Amino acid sequence: MSEPLHDPLADTTPPAAPAAVGAPRQAPAFASAAMRVFDLSLGQMLWSRRTIFLALIVGSPLALGVLFRVLEMFGMGGNIRVGGASAAGATIFGGMIWILYLRFIIPVLGVFYGTALIADEVDDKTITYLFVRPISRSAILVGKYLAYLVTTVFVVLPSVVLLYLLVVPLGQGSLAASFPALLKDLGLLGVGLAAYGALFALIGAQFKHPLVTGLVFAFGWEQLALVLPGYLRRLTIAYYLQALVPHSMPQEGLGSVLQALFREVPSPWVSLAWLFGCTIVSLALAGRIVERREYVLEQ
Question: Fewest beta carbons less than 10 Å away: which of 18, 27, 53, 95?
């Protein structure tokens, strides 16, 4: 007797569902995605060509500090004078923080790093590889911004501490007496890096040639607006940063001269609120632009 034929329809057991090979992956949370981009971008920034530029910029004040110490070793430290009087080490340090760091180094780093967060990916034609990943575009921007902030903070602030150790002891200056001012200066520089970086990240997301636009803003518009009468100076970051500087600078010599140039300044709490607001709003607007903009790569 032949065996009965097997009817496949009679088998009521449903087959096992195959693995969803092509099923879309669930996008990670915003914070998780930003931290992934941060981990990737941090290493790239630390080993990029901009690191050499960062080292040269930060090393210039240290070279001046070494020069001052050498002059003092040869008995010529008293030749450093401000207003006809020999300048104390704390006064020199305060002036270097104001002129070299706040008015030059911090804006320069913000321009060169902040404008490049998105613009470099466009120029290198790698932005499409980032945007095809199942993560928010704004999370990519925030992750790269955090990498910029960590890179610059952990290079600039240690250099300021070294400069402090070199310069403040000049003229028998006391390190312990000026240490609270150093802490204020470190916090002020961190706030400046955050505010400038966020603003120039917005410029980098919006403009086709962001580096030129950022340089014009930092060393054209800000410098002009600060000396013009009226309310234009309130549209700059430097106006609110300089309001915090007199609280961390010595009150004699160069410090008093610089403070006399900028008498009308907002209170520290108002300045901090404006700087914090500028950072958050700039990042939010930059993220919105990146989310909506169509990037066409030139051949």
Answer: 18
Q: How buried is residue 283: exposed, middle or buried, by Cβ count under 10 Å (0-12/13-18/19+)?
A: buried
The 10s digit of each residue's pLDDT in 151-175 is 999 989 999 999 999 988 877 777 8
Q: What is the 3-state secondary structure (H, E, C) of the chain?
A: CCCCCCCHHHCCCCCCCCCCCCCCCCCCCHHHHHHHHHHHHHHHHHCCCHHHHHHHHHHHHHHHHHHHHHHHHCCCHHHCEECCEECCHHHHHHHHHHHHHHHHHHHHHHHHHHCHHHHHHHHCCCHHHHHCCCCCHHHHHHHHHHHHHHHHHHHHHHHHHHHHHHHCCCCCCCHHHHHHHHHHHHHHHHHHHHHHHHHHHHHHHHCCCHHHHHHHHHHHHHHHHHHCCCCHHHHCCHHHHHCCHHHCCCCCCHHHHHHHHCCCCCCHHHHHHHHHHHHHHHHHHHHHHHHHCCCCCCC
- Domain assignments of the chain as residue spans, ordered by start: 31-291
The residue behind tokens 């010529």 is 76
Closest by alpha carbon to 144, among 49, 52, 46, 35? Answer: 35
- For 49-82, the pLDDT digits (tens) are 777 888 888 898 999 989 888 887 776 655 555 4
